[in-house]
Design brief:
The protein has about 500 residues and is of the alpha/beta class. The chain has helices at about 20-35, 45-55, 70-80, 95-105, 115-165, 185-190, 210-220, 265-300, 310-340, 350-370, 390-405, 465-475; strands at about 15-20, 40, 60-65, 85-90, 110, 170-175, 180, 230-235, 240-250, 255-265, 350, 375-380, 385-390, 415-420, 425-430, 480-485, 490-495. A 5-stranded parallel β-sheet has the order 2-1-3-4-5, with helices on both faces. Helix 8 packs antiparallel against helix 9 (about 310-340), helix 10 runs parallel beside helix 11 (about 390-405) and helix 11 runs antiparallel to helix 12 (about 465-475).
């Protein structure tokens, strides 16, 4: 059980009673102690000042008429030592002149002799409330000052961090004015080191599309942060990647935008070199592998049935492996083109029903070899003609149907169901094959990841088909979903928008 937090009570206020009459001193001390004061006494002004030097009091009860140093002089000396001490004057001569004189010297209140205990309690409690109020005000003022110091320190710390970041950082207000930028941003954008902040974003960025994006973020036009695109900004031979996010206030209102700029020139160069290497090696390997594959096919067709079965199996295995290598090269080239952005770039009218029919017709031979049924089903309404990259669509649906054939046992059933769902095309490739365990679902779209078990370990594949499908579908602005259970088959659902020029 969580223990309740118990705060220590505040220390009682110290009150010093100065009076030459013992009965007044002792009686006042008894009354004030009962209502929570820590009381001490002195019989004359000299002793009182010595006590105050050793133990400061917050409140003093002071008799005006005492032998030696009188009350007025003691009051003046107290005000010189500590003006914050409240002094309540005790006098047997309760005249207006006495009260005025005491108040001019700084007395807080006065009480005439003789007085009742209730009178003393009222005046003392009023003084205590005043002291508590002053102490609270002083504490709040100190906390405010400390908060201001902390805020100034925090601002200095944040500025130091921003100025040391290698990433360019820029902050705008809600009107799109730049309120902060660090040295890295000035360097990346080739701005004068002395250029001042405070102007519109257009003063610092020449790219109109990027300016409009940052202004839209600054004005709070993006509700979902995931919808905010990143921008690649080419500057001659240099490439910058720009990302923006809104700055939100306590009530979730948009206060502006924070923009980060990274130099990705090295990454772009590496990607280009990698793509060139893959394309070069793939083209150099594809022709000889295709020749070997054809020659193996000729040898297998010409070899005598009387040849040893081991030789025929070895040649068939070699032909299968060369076919797998040719598929791998094709997949690597597809991935390279996707990363370069050359796929999904050339748009032309595509009749969806004809395209899907061609894919199903082409792959039906493979399905027939395994005694599988492969059918195309679409709704009563004809599928539309859209502007798209036909190679991208053929790669998506061709990979999914080929996968279904490979991972469905002989005699299985495969269906390709297509329909228009609102503003989207929905295509489902459904099989009753081996199925995929749930633990593989999140990784099935990773490159080179393959599910290998007793049923699938002999199936030839590259592990790149589904990653290609996912990247192409996302490039088209769509999504691909998987539903599968072991022994009950698999369904891949592809949703892509039908808006013109989407692909």
């Amino acid at each position: 059980m969580e223990k309740m937090r118990v705060e220590n009570p505040p220390d009682p206020l110290h009150v010093l009673i100065i009076d030459d009459e013992a009965s007044i001193r002792d009686g006042s001390k008894r009354i004030l102690s009962r209502i929570g004061f820590r009381a001490s006494t002195a019989e004359n002004g000299t002793d009182a000042l010595e006590l105050l030097a050793e133990d400061r009091a917050a409140l003093v009860l002071l008799d005006m008429k005492m032998p030696g140093m009188d009350g007025m002089e003691v009051l003046g000396r107290i005000r010189e030592v500590d003006a914050s001490i409240l002094v309540i004057v005790i006098t047997g001569f309760a005249t207006l002149e006495t009260a005025v004189a005491a108040m001019k010297l700084g007395a807080y209140d006065f009480i005439p002799k003789p007085f009742e205990p209730a009178q003393l309690r009222i005046v003392a409690n009023r003084a205590r409330d005043r002291i508590t109020l002053v102490q609270n005000a002083e504490r709040l003022a100190a906390e405010k000052q400390r908060t201001l110091v902390d805020l100034d320190t925090e601002k200095s710390r944040v500025r130091t961090i921003l100025e040391s970041l290698p990433t360019g950082t820029l902050v705008t207000n809600n009107d799109g004015q730049v309120v902060l930028m660090n040295p890295a941003l000035r360097r990346l954008l080739s701005l004068d080191p002395d250029v001042e902040v405070g102007a519109s974003i257009a003063t610092y960025l020449a790219d109109e599309g990027l300016r409009e994006l940052i202004l839209a973020i600054s004005h709070g036009q993006y509700i979902d942060f995931e919808d905010i695109p990143s921008v690649e900004l080419p500057l001659g031979e240099q490439y910058l990647q720009v990302r923006g996010r809104p700055v939100l206030g306590e009530r979730n209102e948009c206060l502006g935008a924070v923009v980060t700029v990274d130099d990705i020139t090295a990454m772009k160069t590496l990607d280009r070199l990698k793509s060139e290497f893959v394309a070069k090696v793939s083209h150099e390997l594809r022709s000889p592998l295709a020749t070997i594959h054809e020659q193996l096919a000729i040898v297998l067709s010409a070899i005598s049935e009387m040849a040893p079965s081991g030789d025929r199996q070895m040649l068939a295995r070699a032909k299968e492996k060369t076919s797998g290598l040719i598929s791998l090269i094709g997949d690597l080239l597809d991935l390279s083109r996707i990363e370069e952005g050359t796929l999904c770039a050339e748009l032309e009218p595509v009749h969806l029903e004809k395209l899907l029919g061609s894919i199903v017709s082409f792959l039906r031979t493979r399905a027939d070899a395994k005694q599988q049924t492969l059918t195309l089903i679409h709704g009563d309404a004809p599928l539309p003609t859209i502007e798209a990259d036909p190679l991208a669509l053929e790669s998506i649906f061709g990979n999914l149907v080929a996968n279904a054939i490979n991972y469905t046992p002989d005699g299985g059933d495969i269906r390709v169901e297509a329909e228009v769902a609102g503003s989207n095309l929905r295509v489902q490739v459904i099989d009753n094959g081996f199925g995929i365990e749930a633990r593989h679902h999140e990784r099935i779209f990773e490159r080179f990841y393959r599910v290998k078990d007793d049923q699938t370990r002999f199936i030839t594949g590259t592990g790149l088909g589904l990653p290609i499908v996912k990247q192409l579908v996302e490039t088209l602005g769509g999504l691909v979903e998987l539903e599968s259970e072991p022994g009950r088959g698999t369904t891949f659902t592809v949703l892509t928008p039908l808006r013109k020029n989407t692909f």
